[in-house]
Every structure is written in structure tokens, then in C-alpha cells.
Amino acid sequence: MAAVGVLAMCVVTCDHEALGHGGVCVLLHGRILLLSSSLFRCNIRSGWIGPAGPAANLLLGTLALVCLRFVSERWLTARLFLIVVSAFSFFWESAYVIRAMLLR
Fold first, then answer.
1. Which helix (H) or strand (E) holds 32?
2. Contact call for residues 60 and 87 (beta carbons, < 8 A)
3. Of 6, 33, 53, 75, which sees the most CB atoms within 10 A?
């Protein structure tokens, strides 16, 4: 179970930072200057880059829940993985909302 949790955390983090923020940076013809598990920097500024990470997480969490309906109950590890991916994705974005309310 711990390995499934670590793998899910890695997938959600890559989705947020690399696919979300990084994907929009590249689509806007920017260059990624910093990409880590918690930081992202692009050489151009755009109002689209910031929200792209949370949008990617919400999309991944929803996609994981939809896929859960099609995975057999016999595949417990796959079902656990999809549940944890959706939970991590939605909890990450919930924390952003709380942080924004407290700081702004």
C-alpha cells in the first residue's frame, strides 16, 4: 500500500508541475528554467501558467474517478491507485483554496 501511495504521489506531482505548468509554458513557446517536485519557473510570464497546474490536477483527479468505474473489483491494487490519485489531486487543490483564503 505504501508503494502505491508513493507512486500515486509521483504521478500527481508530475501531472501538476510538468504537464500542467510545464505544458502551458512550452505551448506558449517558453523555456522551463526550473522544474522540481514543488517549484516551477518559466522564462516567460503569463496568466495561463499559474492556473494550469491546478487545472491539470483537477482533470487527473476526475479522470481517475471515471477510470475507477471501469476497473474490475478484482484488481484491488489498480483501484487503490486510482482512488489515491484522485484523493491526492483533489486534496492538493483544496489546500490551495484554503491557502489563498488565508493569504489574500
1. strand 32-35
2. no
3. 53
What angle do helix axes 49-68 and 76-103 make, rounded to 10 degrees? 150
DSSP labels, 33-93: EEE-SS-EEESS--TTHHHHHHHHHHHHHHHHHHHHTTS-TT-HHHHHHHHHHHHHHHHHH
Which grid coordinates are listed for 33? 528554467
97 is written with which cell numbers?
Answer: 483554496
For residue 29, what is the DSSP state?
Answer: T
Q: Is the dihedral of CA 5, 83, 50, 97 positive or negative?
A: negative
Q: What is the pLDDT of residues 19-78, one digit of tens each?
A: 999 999 999 999 999 999 888 999 999 999 989 999 999 999 999 999 999 999 999 999
Q: What is the pTM of this model?
A: 0.86
In this structure, the number of other CB atoms found within 10 A of the CB of residue 38 comes to: 7
The number of residues making up the chain comes to 104
